[in-house]
Amino acid sequence: MNSTAGDSASTIQSPSILDVVVDDDGRNELGDREIIIAVMGITGAGKSHLIRATTDEPVIVGDGLEACTQRVKGIAMRYQGSNVTFLDTPGFNDTYRSDTDVLYDISSYFGDTYRGGMKLSGIIYLHSIKDNKMRGPSLRSLRMFRKLVGADAMHNVILATTHWDLEIPEVGQRREEELKVKFWKDLIDNGARVVRFMGNQKSGLELLDMLVEKRRVVLDIQREVVDENRNLVDTGAGQVLNQELRKLRQEYEGKLDRAREELVEAIKDKDEKAKIELAKATGEIQSKLEAVEEDSRALRQKGFEQDRKQRELINTLQLMQLASKKEKDGLDKRQEELEKELADVKRQAEADAQANSGPSVGEIMTPLVSCVESLAQAYICHLNQRST
Questions:
Q1: How many other β-carbons are positioned within 10 Å of the β-carbon of residue 112?
Q2: CA dihedral sign, ordered 219, 302, 17, 163
Q3: Model-level pTM greater than 0.90?
Q4: 128 bridge partner residues
Q5: How far apart are CA 260 and CA 191, in angstroms?
Q6: Mean pLDDT, residues 2-27 taken together
């Protein structure tokens, strides 16, 4: 694999980052640092391409607005003595999935990493410089990103512009300045940095170098979901999405009312062409409205489902611990009974030995007692390991 001078970068085959156990300093059982960097942005911004270029891994890259990343997934590499995992996240304007599903997957994954002691070293938020306007999906994604991360973790954020090879440099520079002043100012004021990703490994490793030594941070969504046990709809990002869905519902309801009125007029005027076109348009708007309403319902249900799963996991763990304690207590009692029985047998053996010639009581009892005690202690040790 190619690398810049002084850098040591290579891809590795590693277990899921969710299965890695780390200490408070983010080091695994071998003493290596585990660095996690989330890559976010709308579909088409170049998330998978950045990861592929940086890690030299064959990550599937989308074409245009077709989303390839359907779930959060980790791509690992070895870099300068540390294990680096890039989290490739789906965009909020995913081709095949609702924003509610995407938000739920991201918050659940980030929550799971946080529960396991894994904190993020950085977040790279991508925006294509060829997009000449901040349209609805881009604005919605940015609002939710702001709430997902939170102001306290913004100093670990890189706002990376992409696709510079597809835009005239002077035009791209004007858009970059507009982003800094109009849309990203509060993020920059809180510590985020604006950097250009030039589409190659050298540029990707430069982004990585800016984050690997950063103090690990807890995102707002992690704190809300794990520490505060909030429903998804009650998180900052969930509230933003809920507001956006309300706006969309009102917008589609207004369009549907107007389309129906025009359809009635076309029927009265016996305008067959207009009637067909308006009937089709009405159906399309109705479908979009139903999708938004379903998304709103799912947002509330996903939150309750998330809490339910957490409670079930906690209850299961508590029941397992209780069962292990009861089993251990039962074994302790049985061991006491066994020791009493052994003492009785020993006394009887001593009496028999005095009355009859033959092996000493020690020769008879010592191997038996040692064997029984070893078995009991081994089983107690096994139960102790299960209960911890």
A1: 17
A2: negative
A3: no
A4: 162
A5: 50
A6: 57
Tokens standing for residue 15: 């277990």
b vs e for 52-70, b when ≥16 Cβ sit within 10 Å of the residue's Cβ?
Answer: bbbbbbebeebeeeebebe
Please give the backbone phi and psi of residue 200, each rounded to the nearest 5 degrees, phi first. Answer: -125, 175
Residues 6+ apart with CB under 8 A from 311: none
More confident residue, 3 or 350: 350
Q: Which residue has the tokens 């000449």?
A: 132
- On the question of pLDDT at 12 being above 50, the answer is no
Sheet holding 82-88, edge to edge: 9-11, 73-79, 82-88, 34-40, 122-128, 157-162, 193-196
Scanning the structure block, which residue is given the tokens 């940095």?
193
Identity at 310, one-letter amino acid code: Q
Question: What pLDDT digit, counting tens, does each position of 265-291 carry?
Answer: 888 888 888 889 999 999 999 999 999
Compute the distance between CA of residue 169 and CA of residue 190 in angstroms, rounded to an integer: 28
- Contacts with 331 (C-beta within 8 Å, 6 or more apart), sequence order: 376, 379, 380, 383
Report which secondary-structure segment, H or E, holds 194: strand 193-196
pLDDT tens for each residue of 51-108: 999 998 765 444 444 444 568 889 999 999 899 999 999 988 777 788 899 999 999 9
